[in-house]
Amino acid sequence: MANWHDRPATAALYLAICLLAIAVRLTSALPTVAGSPCEPVCADAGDLVEDVVCLDADYQNLENGRAFRECVSCQLNSTAVDTAKNETDVDYGLCM
Q: Could you state, in order of their start, the residue ranges of all structural domains in the chain?
């Protein structure tokens, strides 16, 4: 019986999935609408993979928790809109 790596199509699919996962990880900073007043706030908030905290207390006690909270708070109160992409900061704040 052949293993998955013996089948070129399956091996190529696994390679593509791995590369996509790496690309997503490299571009996983907290998003904002281009030109938003939240851009500098969210730039300091890290990314969704490494910097989001889980415990309520960590949103007060840890630097990355406070940065994430400030980013989402900014987004939820923002009026920034990207009409070309039909995106808003509020959309990003709700979907994180």
A: 29-95
